[in-house]
Write a structure and sequence with these properties.
This protein is α/β, with parallel strands linked by helices. Helix content is about 45%, strand content about 25%. The chain has 5 helices and 7 strands; from the N terminus they run βββαβαβαααββ. It is globular.
């Protein structure tokens, strides 16, 4: 499975693509989409949208994971971040990708084991988990961490989806990691 992780931001939107091969996580690519601060808001959102669509077209992920917005002290900053997140979500959904959402706390906990880990810890752990020569940039590391979080959470998500499709009144049990009736 190929996963695209996105860390949305109005100035810098990080993206990272990983692949799951058995129990291994493989690095595919990562980078940062930069929207110039001197551009009007609509153009900046268009840059995020267009560039993420290009990333999807060139890397062909099967699924995407997006960091949820947290509420800042400054409501204006939160609203602007929400716009960037909306542009990213539209680009992903418009590319026919299912979008999973994770909080920064969930992502850090899945990658580092501590929901309050520092950015540097996330970068080092992403480097280690993906066997990279050097730590990725902060925006790329956050996006890759989001993809890694989904890779760790997807078996649970699949089981929950499977459980929601169960027939009532049937006695189910786990066998080999699967629910059987």
């Amino acid at each position: 499975m190929r996963i695209l992780g996105v860390d949305p931001g109005l100035r810098r939107t990080g993206f990272g693509v990983i692949e799951i091969e058995g129990a291994r996580l493989l690095y595919v690519t990562s980078g940062t989409i930069t929207a110039p601060a001197d551009q009007p808001l609509a153009q900046r959102l268009g840059i995020i949208f267009d560039n993420l669509r290009e990333v999807v077209a060139s890397t062909r992920p099967e699924i995407s994971a997006l960091e949820k917005v947290f509420v800042n002290v400054n409501p204006s900053s939160t609203l602007l971040l929400g716009h960037a997140r909306g542009a990213a979500m539209c680009a992903l959904a418009g590319s026919q990708l299912h979008v999973y959402e994770y909080t920064a706390l969930q992502i850090k906990k899945a990658v580092v084991g501590n929901g309050h880990a520092a950015k540097e810890q996330v970068q080092k752990m992403v480097q280690h988990l993906l066997s990279l020569d050097r730590p990725p940039t902060a925006d790329s590391a956050d996006a890759l961490a989001c993809a890694i979080c989904h890779a760790h959470m997807s078996p649970l998500a699949q089981r929950l989806q499977q459980a929601s499709n169960l027939a009532p009144g049937t006695n189910y049990r786990m066998r080999g990691g699967r629910l059987v009736g």
